[in-house]
Amino acid sequence: MTSQGTRLAGKVAVISGASRGMGLSHTRAFLDQGARVVAFDLNEDAGQTLAEEYGVDRVVFLRGDVRTAADWSHAVQTGVERFGAINVLVNNAGVSPLQRLESVTEADYRRVIDINQVGTFLGMRAVIPAMRESGGGSIVNIASSAALVGFADIFSYVASKWAVRGMTKAAALELVEYGIRVNAVCPGDTDTPMIRENAKTPSASMPPAEDLPFGRWARPEEVSAAAVFLASDESSYMSGTEVVVDGAFTAQ
Ligand SMILES: NC(=O)c1ccc[n+]([C@@H]2O[C@H](COP(=O)([O-])OP(=O)(O)OC[C@H]3O[C@@H](n4cnc5c(N)ncnc54)[C@H](O)[C@@H]3O)[C@@H](O)[C@H]2O)c1
What InterPro entries does the record tag this protein with (predicted)? Predict the structure, then answer.
């Protein structure tokens, strides 16, 4: 468990890709700060554990695909029916296969764009009516340091994450009239199953952890801290921007 508090007390959050890695960490951090959470993922691995740990009155875990508008509607509807509102969305689900421009297939490129970019768009669009009903809300899009600079060997991923950052700014301007803030978190290399998988193959996109300015990857909870801040009222005058949690990587 992360530290306990009340920074998100009274808030209901939808979090995608919550079965493992950072999505699971965000879900725990939100629950630990008093939020109630509708979590979803392609698989429900973490669902039972979270329900046992926090109680079914605090967290609902659904099976869902961010590429499917109906799954987003189901998540939003579940939040409204079970917890009475939707105040926060964390668009976290994503994939990051190693792919080079000269050899990536059209199908593989479209898959990454579909999950990382279209999934983020569908999530933002889905929560707008419920957030308007609540008088506002906070959308947190998980982008990446790959939304700030280019990286070799993860071509589709870089394209999708720059799109997430751009959508964040465009959505912030459109949704300000409803009191909905939209921000991005840009993590650097973070210790999750995704990066452990990628680290098995030497690639230009991932220097060894000891060569990073901090000499290590981020811990998932160090990124969740930024998500909690952006979801909370502490960031009430922040919208259309990004919080970079990359241990000075892009400062180089
Ligand atoms: N780990 C890093 O170094 C790093 C760095 C920057 C940004 N990110 C971003 O953070 C987010 C989380 O990454 P992670 O490292 O925890 O990854 P991860 O692979 O460990 O976990 C991702 C989760 O998303 C789920 N998911 C994948 N496709 C889905 C879909 N179509 N619908 C619903 N759920 C789906 C997976 O089942 C998995 O549980 C991603 O958006 C990723 O791009 C990760």
Answer: NAD(P)-bd_dom_sf, Sc_DH/Rdtase_CS, SDR_fam
- Which residue of the set 54, 109, 157, 237 is catalytic? 157
Query: 138 and 183 in contact (C-beta within 8 Å)?
Result: yes
Residue 169: the pLDDT is 99
Q: Is residue 96 part of a domain?
A: yes
Q: Is residue 47 within 6 Å of ligand 1 at its C-beta?
A: no
144 in any annotated domain:
yes
Rounded Cα distance between 195 and 202, Å, is 12
Residue 226 in domain: yes
User: CA angle, corner 199, sides to 198 and 202, nearest 5?
Assistant: 100
* 157 in active site: yes
Paired tokens of 180: 């909905």
Which range marks the domain in which residue 146 is found?
12-245
Domains in the chain, number: 1
Residue owning the nearest CA to atom 7 of ligand 1: 144
Question: pLDDT, tens digit, for every residue of 129-173?
Answer: 999 999 999 999 999 999 999 999 999 999 999 999 999 999 999
Question: pLDDT (tens digit, 9 = 90+) per residue, 87-117?
Answer: 999 999 999 999 999 999 999 999 999 999 9
2 part of a folded domain: no
| Domain CATH for 111 | 3.40.50.720
